[in-house]
Design a protein that fits this description.
This protein has 232 residues and is mainly beta. The protein has helices at 49-56, 80-91, 174-182, and strands at 18-22, 26-31, 61-62, 71-77, 96-104, 111-115, 118-120, 128-130, 139-151, 157-167, 208-216, 223-227.
Length: 232
C-alpha cells in the first residue's frame, strides 16, 4: 500500500473570518479563500478556520469543511451535543448547500444534473477521479445565472458562465471535478483545468463561494436559511 505524502504548504492568509451569527450553540461564519478548514499535519499549516475560532470559542468543532480555495458559509458547533446533531443532518443530507461559481466557457444548457461517482486514487493525490466502479455516488445540480465575456489585457474575450451549484452529496472536490466533467472547469481551479491559457492573466483565486446554507437549528428547531453574496 503506497503512502500518501502531502507536500502542500499554505501561503499566509491575511483575510479575517467574518462571524455572521452566533448564539450559545452555534456560529455561522464566512470563510475567506486561501484558508484551510483544519490545520494540517505540517506545522507550517497550523493556521486554519478551527485554529482561529478555538481561540474565540473554546471547544468548538467543525461540522463540515470547505476546500482551501473556496470561500463562504460554514456552520460551527460550539459544543459536542450540537456537533452530533448537526453532523446527523449533514449525513442524512438534510442540509441544503448552494454555491456560486464562475465556469470557463459558455454552457449550452441553462440547467442540468451531473451524476458521476468520485473515487480517491493514491497515485493521483491530491486529485480525485471519476470512476463508476470504485467511486462513491456523487450528484450535483447546476443552474446558469448569466453568460459573460471577460476582456483580457490583450483584448481577447474570455467566455465565462456564472452558475449556481447545488450538490446532493458531499464528496471531496465534488463540484470542481463535476464541472470539469461537464467540460467547463471552475475558473482559477489549479487541480481540474480552470487556469487561464499560458501568457494571459491568472485568476486571483478559485471562483467558488458557498453562498447559501439551509439547516434546522438543533435547539430552537427553526430553519436557518443563511445567505452570503459571492465576492466575485
Amino acid at each position: 500500500m503506497s503512502t500518501i505524502i502531502d507536500t502542500f504548504i499554505a501561503p499566509p492568509c491575511h483575510d479575517k473570518i467574518e462571524i455572521l451569527y452566533q448564539d450559545e450553540h452555534l456560529a455561522l461564519i464566512n470563510k475567506p479563500a486561501g484558508l484551510l478548514s483544519l490545520s494540517g499535519k505540517n506545522p507550517q499549516n497550523l493556521d486554519s478556520v478551527h485554529h482561529r475560532l478555538v481561540q474565540i470559542f473554546p471547544g468548538c468543532t467543525l461540522v463540515h469543511r470547505l476546500d482551501f480555495g473556496t470561500s463562504g458559509l460554514m456552520v460551527i458547533a460550539l459544543n459536542k451535543t450540537i456537533n452530533a446533531a448537526l453532523c446527523q443532518q449533514f449525513s442524512q443530507r438534510a442540509v441544503t448547500k448552494v454555491y456560486s461559481a464562475l465556469l470557463c466557457g459558455h454552457l449550452d444548457d441553462n440547467h442540468g444534473v451531473i451524476d458521476a461517482a468520485i473515487a480517491k486514487d493514491p497515485a493521483l493525490f491530491p486529485l480525485m477521479s471519476i470512476c463508476a466502479i470504485r467511486g462513491k455516488p456523487a450528484r450535483s445540480h447546476y443552474q446558469v445565472v448569466e453568460r459573460v465575456d471577460h476582456t483580457l489585457e490583450d483584448g481577447t474575450l474570455l467566455p465565462l458562465t456564472r452558475v449556481q451549484l447545488t450538490p446532493e452529496t458531499g464528496r471531496t472536490h465534488q463540484l470542481r471535478i463535476h464541472c470539469q466533467q461537464l467540460g467547463h472547469p471552475i475558473l482559477g481551479c489549479d487541480l481540474y483545468g480552470g487556469r487561464l491559457l499560458p501568457g494571459t492573466e491568472q485568476a486571483p483565486r478559485l471562483m467558488l463561494h458557498a453562498s447559501e446554507l439551509h439547516f434546522v437549528h438543533p435547539i430552537g428547531e427553526e430553519w436557518i436559511r443563511a445567505r452570503h453574496a459571492s465576492p466575485f
